[in-house]
Design brief:
binds adenosine monophosphate, about 220 residues, Rossmann fold, globular, alpha/beta, three-stranded antiparallel beta sheet
Length: about 220
């Protein structure tokens, strides 16, 4: 049986990662977080990791050929060893070439149909949110310093809350430019196919969580 895919789109800092995680838990779906996967490879210090770091530390998108290879391997492995009832893709695709590659990969490993939840946020709120974002260096939980200003992670109680290198102001500016130039065209790509529902994340997490769940219900195959 084919595994439905829900793609999470949205600019950096819109809350995409948080809401993909929350929806995956609520809907009993799998969560594929490409940014975390890439950060893990980068940290390993392998030749591929060093190559990834060169792009990621500058806020640039990693070239499509490399991303497509990594994602193809990771998705095939996931479907083979631990197939979820549905899969949320967080951070992939981020370019039209990646979206086209996903169609091919999905057809070959029985993933699909594809639908998209797009999370929107005005630029000034994005910059503020990213500046306030802290991430646990152990479990990956995300916090806003305005809501929790401690240093130790209150979730796993052993990690430290840190600012990601690519959340620093200069890098964020570059990531927003990359989003506008390369990722935003996906809104048209999927919009034309009639598979996209948008949600605005200009409200507290619990409110946006309900909006995202509403969007999920809307795109459920009938
Ligand atoms: P994220 O945590 O999803 O914001 O991703 C962090 C960084 O990983 C991005 O700024 C990019 O450098 C890289 N990255 C993540 N996903 C992709 C993708 N689909 N294509 C190219 N680069 C990516």
């Amino acid at each position: 049986m084919s595994i439905p895919i829900i793609i999470f789109l949205g600019p950096p800092g819109c809350g995409k990662g948080t809401h993909a995680k929350l929806l995956a838990e609520r809907a009993g779906a799998g969560h594929f977080d490409l940014g975390s996967l890439l950060r893990g490879i980068a940290k390993s210090g392998s030749p591929r990791g060093v190559e990834l770091t060169g792009f990621m530390s500058k806020g640039l998108l990693v070239p499509d050929t490399l991303i497509i290879e990594i994602v193809r391997d990771a998705l095939s492995e996931r479907v083979k060893t631990n197939p979820p009832p549905a899969l949320l893709l967080d951070g992939f695709p981020r370019t039209v070439a990646q979206a086209e590659a996903l169609e091919k990969v999905a057809a070959s490993i029985e993933l699909g149909p594809v639908s998209v939840i797009n999370i929107n946020l005005p630029n000034e709120l994005i910059v503020e949110r990213i500046a306030n974002r802290r991430v646990c260096n152990k479990c990956g939980a995300i916090f806003d310093v305005l809501e929790f200003s401690g240093k130790e992670c209150p979730k796993c109680k052993s990690g430290q809350l840190i600012q990601r290198d690519d959340d620093k102001a200069e890098v964020v500016r570059r990531r927003l430019e990359e989003y506008a130039a390369k990722t935003a065209p996906l809104l048209q790509f999927y919009g034309k196919k009639g598979k996209l529902v948008s949600v605005v994340s200009d409200a507290p997490v619990e409110v946006v969580r309900e909006r995202v769940y509403g969007a999920y219900k809307q795109i459920q195959p009938k």
